[in-house]
Amino acid sequence: GAVVSQHPSRVICKSGTSVKIECRSLDFQATTMFWYRQFPKQSLMLMATSNEGSKATYEQGVEKDKFLINHASLTLSTLTVTSAHPEDSSFYICSLTSGGNNEQFFGPGTRLTVL
Amino acid sequence: QKEVEQNSGPLSVPEGAIASLNCTYSDRVSQSFFWYRQYSGKSPELIMSIYSNGDKEDGRFTAQLNKASQYVSLLIRDSQPSDSATYLCAVSDNYGQNFVFGPGTRLSVLP
Prior knowledge:
The complex is a heterodimer of chains A (115) and B (111). Chain A is mainly β. Helices cover 0% and strands 52% of the residues of chain A. By secondary structure, chain B is mainly beta. The model of chain B has no long low-confidence stretch (mean pLDDT 93).
């Protein structure tokens, strides 16, 4: 399967600051990447689909102006949480599909804590 | 709205037993089915994928699919304490779109 990295793995920030999370595909050129959020003891929630060279597609209820996604190359997608607040504290995970069998492979995740 | 349902658990089994995890889905056009394992504090890891009716075996894991009943299951033979995790069922259409995860079943294998 595809190898996906995320940086940083953990970030603590003050309320009102912006945080950028990077998702890299290390061995595959991904035209599409996915961003998920997971609150404690809950399942994954798809936030948006990141498309290389075009605008991301956001799921209903996800504010595109708050969660900025840039997919500028086939190996890098970034998620910026703007003006973060404590309720944005969560586990953010990216993924991509590789090959023709529709399997999704996940990055290791980024744990965001907003004080 | 597409839905994937799983018992939240926890499902507790003794070490060495067979753990049986079940999943139902609502969208009949779903064509691809996946089982992911997620340890606490970690991201999901793909353990099995299945695309046609019947059984698919990989080591101690067997996935079973019944499209007519809209049902997919995962059997774990000779369960080990290291299998203790949350198991997520996921489905998608034939193009890898509309990927939907279930809420997960927490499995606890007791030594």
